[in-house]
From TrEMBL:
Source species of the chain: Streptomyces triticagri
Gene3D superfamilies hit by this protein: Glutaredoxin
Keyword annotations of the record: Oxidoreductase
Name listed for the protein in its UniProt record: Arsenate reductase family protein
Keyword Signal carried by entry: no
InterPro entries membership: Arsenate_reductase, Arsenate_reductase-like, Thioredoxin-like_sf
Amino acid sequence: MEIWINPACSKCRSALGLLDAEGADYTVRRYLDDVPTEDEIRAVLGKLGLEPWDITRTQEAAAKELGLKDRAEWPRDESGRDRWIAALAAHPKLIQRPIITADDGTAVVARTDEAVRDALGR
């Protein structure tokens, strides 16, 4: 099991606390320091069953600077997918957190205790 975290994030700290309380065996990836490649982002999106815009923190300053809410400039379909992935790789702070890749190869955005427990059960 791997968890992508930002240590400054309270949701990440909460997820780690729950994993520890459950005695889970996991690896921490501080994704702001160890930035995922575009291919790694594609892989985690496949495991999540989501699109890049689904895991983008659109309220971040970088998102506003890039104009990510402008759907004409940033289409949320196959034509814009690679551009979104490139933006996440270039600006990892935009990636929603924490993301847990479960032992069965699936992943969840673990912002709630329920989601963390779901990942533990996989």
